[in-house]
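dumping this here before i forget
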Amino acid sequence: MRSNSPLLVISLLVIFKLFGNNIFPSSRTYEHSKIIEIPDLSFVRTVYSGLDIIEQMDYKPLRNKSIAILTNQSAVNRNNKHLLDLIAKYPDIKITFLLSMEHGIWSTNDKRSKMIGRDGLSPLHKAQIIDLFKTYLHPPSWVMNNIDLVLIDYQDTGSRYSTYTATLSKIFESASDFDVPVLILDRPNPIRGDLISGPIPRPEFQSFESYHLFPIRHGLTIGEMSLIINEMGWVKDLKRIKLSIIPMANWDREMWYKDTKLPIKNLTPYLKSLPSLLAYVGMDLFRGTNLNIGFGTSAPYLVVGAPWLSTTYLIEKIKEQSLPGVNFKELEYRPKGSTYQRRTPKYDNQKCSGIELTITDENIFEPIRTATSLIVLINQLFPRQFKWEENNYIDLLFGSNELRILSAQKKNPDNLPALWSKDVYRSVDKMSRFVLSLNTVLQVNSFLRNKGIKVINTFNCTSWKTECTASNYFVRDDSNKRECLLDDWMENNWTN
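structure:
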């Protein structure tokens, strides 16, 4: 991290720092999954997505196969050509079905989205479109019985809230039942692959938007998530699939998506910019409240407000939290729904008092800490007007009831990062051996620095042995010169 601000360390960040190129070593093997070897492209100095790689392979893994494709508008190569347009040129690749996630296959401004008739066929490939969000949860049997392969290519958001991961898992269930192989084309984590933050969902709070045991900001690519899900047996009934992954080349985990120079599309109708994508990591929690978060405006997730909100006093209180990398200002706005939006925004066409977020430094901005601080303060300052959504939907988004309980107890919102910190450390233990990189060093920075605790030992985890866990880190308390194992310290101090 480029900042030395002590405020940053309150939010737990786990850093995966890569050395060398991102070519997957042939010696790395998994029990149920295969990482396809790719050419050495380190001399190019350009990030190649999985789609770019399979293009270099002349689509050989797809030739002479009948395939179903899970994709959306984000599946473009480095020249901004869509997957479906690229493989249309190959008559020996038969696209039998297109599998659609939430928000559809094409964006609303793509003419192809308006060319799908009642027959539900793709205008280019004449492939049947299967809606896996509203109509089906799993690909039906008549789909799986008529294909040789499921191809998956889409850009993930980097946040756990996305329903895309649940849809992915439902496909895995069907692929296991019908013994159909799955091929993943890997893509970057758009908000960096070295930052992890937020709670892991408790089993009783798992949902379609918190489907697996990932932190909210998980730091993983779609290939890495798929690898974890398959190898850890996270698919229902411990099902496994014949999973193959085409990794990226030359991607560094410290890269923001803009650093990759790859084209990016709006990942959902509401994620219209990279700042909104980063803010989404935290601000999507507001969907569990009765506040508007910019739906019906030009800046979703960067605005929060309501007709009853008194913003002047709220801004005074939020500034006391000294949240890094973000500024706040008052605004008035009127959310307006449109025919292109699938949901009517809260307080549609009503005058709202609100706060606008401006991210001043994306490298130190802590979206989850920022959002939870706002939620807790608004709840405490406006107890009569503030409401949680029905059935405590906030618990499903957050992954536990801790946010709601802490708010009710009128505690300082700065207590929350400590509550999810141990989740993050434990997730690193499980996730580290699935990182698709050659040499990886895990370096821990956390809110512990706020108390004078510093990491004094790191280890090279290229052997990927079981002893390479977060508990191998030693920490030092400079105030009294004591040294101890991190896990021991956390066990005794993390809730304080």
